[in-house]
Amino acid sequence: QVQLVESGGGLVQPGGSLRLSCAASGSIFSIYRMGWYRQAPGQQRELVAVITSGDNSNYADSVKGRFTISRDGPKNTVYLQMNSLKPEDTAVYYCNYRPGLFGKADYWGQGTQVTVSS
Prior knowledge:
0% of the residues lie in helices and 54% in strands. By secondary structure, it is mostly beta strands.
């Protein structure tokens, strides 16, 4: 089993910055993909950024140039540095862990609220 503990969400003004973190614990496979998804009220959950255990990363077009995903391998932790935040970034952000092993299901954190408002 894998547990995901998220932190760093909160209220921030437009143009401000926030850093989310997600620590994975339990039976962590050495090859994996971790990242962040978000869901605003009435909308579908969408991918924000992901990073592999090989340090390959991908971003949604809406956050490119503003958000940076990074990984601390020994801590099994992924971070999302969010800069130049906009009101449209307001959503519940969910941490995701995908084992690099055939037949294994994804794991999800409970979600953390990010609100961008003046």
